[in-house]
Amino acid sequence: MNVLYVYAHQEPKSFNSSMKDTALEAFEERGDSVKVSDLYAMNFDPVLDENDFKNRKYTDIFNPFLEQLHANKTDGFAPDIKAEMDKINWADMLIFQFPIYFTGFPAIMKGWIDRVFSPGFAFNPLTQSAYETGLLKGKKSMLVTTAGADKDWYSKGGMHGDIHELLKSITHCTLEFTGLEVLPTHVVYGASNLSEDDAKKELERYRELILSL
Amino acid sequence: MNVLYVYAHQEPKSFNSSMKDTALEAFEERGDSVKVSDLYAMNFDPVLDENDFKNRKYTDIFNPFLEQLHANKTDGFAPDIKAEMDKINWADMLIFQFPIYFTGFPAIMKGWIDRVFSPGFAFNPLTQSAYETGLLKGKKSMLVTTAGADKDWYSKGGMHGDIHELLKSITHCTLEFTGLEVLPTHVVYGASNLSEDDAKKELERYRELILSL
To answer: Which residues of B are catalytic?
Structure first.
């Protein structure tokens, strides 16, 4: 299958980077094709603004929603957005790997969603295209995340609460919203304090997950 | 009281802008002092990276968490972050006003959190400073948001689900996490299709809320 691997970590020597490399090797072993959007390395701009559009429908007032709809009809997106859309169209599966920041995406990845998952491309309220009829239906997706805190913080009754409930804003209201099938989220807890041995075990656990997809 | 008003909308002629202006007038009527962080107008950079730091603790590997802790000990943040921290220190209340993007913050506001609410400033895992002992304890906060979709989408059993549950990643795991008291979230539903009359009513409803704080 074709995999788009959207990745957000600043440091090539990080544990997150090792996880990404582990996944890429496992996908190669499977014979899958992978394109990587390495957001920090690409210097991806996460801010949805007027620069997203090559031509504007309304120049007197900026309405992001209406401009996104218009750009989808007129091939009017800036090249950096168009490039990500092309990768999504090519992909059978989207993987989002990120260290969790305040129980959600780092801003650079949130902005990738804000700018790329636009109305007319990923969903469309005007044609009732969302969830069961979302425009990305037929593709799969998965979140892969590292949390600095331990699992008890992220469990029901813990300080933060159940991580899977907290991520519903992404898994349900973002990914399923566009019609994507969502595989169970893969979480590495206590990632800021992993021993070398535990890090190895986590990489192996992730490798096996990718091989089992 | 002193209010920091963190605001994220691109367009000065938008309904969101009218809401902000309504709030600022109401705060003036109350005799409160307000500082506004108008994130798009400031061209605020939401990406947490090496440029956040004037000096680095570790130059061989970039670990955002350790660098943020170090910067808080050494006055080592870039000026744009320092300026926001100064406003928070001055404020008794923080208000975040934004159009909801995929049931969460727009990236520009998420990045404000990622970069400004750093360990050592807003919380500190090393000293067990979070929630009841969060470093911003004593201050209040409130989310103010507009949703394009109608209320039934954002209710229990609706397509997205209960908006207050979806926002817990912000209200609980971000704001309460730092010790902030969180007032009930103010939501304007169906904001993309408000009639002129309904828009007026919503502005009046918001004005009354600010006056009642």
So the answer is: 148, 154, 160
In chain B the beta strands, taken as DSSP E runs, fall at 2-7, 33-38, 93-99, 140-146, 181-182, 186-188
Instruction: Tell me the ipTM for this assembly.
Output: 0.98
Residues of chain B positioned with their CB less than 8 A from the CB of A113: 101-102
Under 8 Å between Cβ of A121 and A73: no
CB contact under 8 A, A108 and B111: yes
Residue type, position B89, single letter? N
What count of other Cβ atoms lies within 10 Å of the Cβ of residue B204? 11
Best mutation target among A132, A155, A160, A174 (most B Cβ atoms within 10 Å) is A160
Does the distance separating the beta carbons of A108 and B46 come in below 8 Å?
yes
Query: Which B residues, 45 through 74, put their C-beta within 8 Å of a C-beta on chain A?
Result: 46-50, 60-65
Q: Which residue of B has its CA nearest to A123?
A: B102
Chain B residues in contact with A168 by the CB 8 A cut-off are: 161, 165-166
pTM over 0.95: yes
B145 DSSP β-pair partners: B98, B187
Q: What pLDDT is recorded for position B4?
A: 99
Of residues B114, B169, B174, nearest to A106 (C-beta): B114
B108 touches chain A (CB under 8 A): yes
Residues in A touching B61 (Cβ below 8 Å): 11, 13-14
Packing angle between helix B79-90 and helix B107-116, nearest 10 degrees?
Answer: 80
The domain of A181 spans 2-212
The string of pLDDT tens digits covering residues A134-146 is 999 999 999 999 9
Find the closest chain B residue to A49 by CA distance.
B10
CATH number, domain of A74, equals 3.40.50.360
At B164 the pLDDT is: 97
User: pLDDT tens digits for A15-66?
Assistant: 999 999 999 999 999 999 999 999 999 999 999 999 999 999 999 999 999 9
What distance in Å separates the CA atoms of residue A51 and residue A33, rounded to the nearest whole number? 31
B165-202 per-residue burial string, b: 16 or more CB within 10 A, e: under 16: bbbbbbbbbbbbbbbbebbeebbbbbbbebeeeeeeeb
**Which chain A positions have a beta carbon within 8 Å of B166's beta carbon?**
168-169, 173
What is the SS3 assignment for B185?
coil
The domain total for chain A is: 1
DSSP reduced 3-state for A19: helix
Q: What element of type H or E holds A80? A: helix A79-90
Q: For position B9, what pLDDT does the model report?
A: 98
Averaged confidence pLDDT in chain A = 97
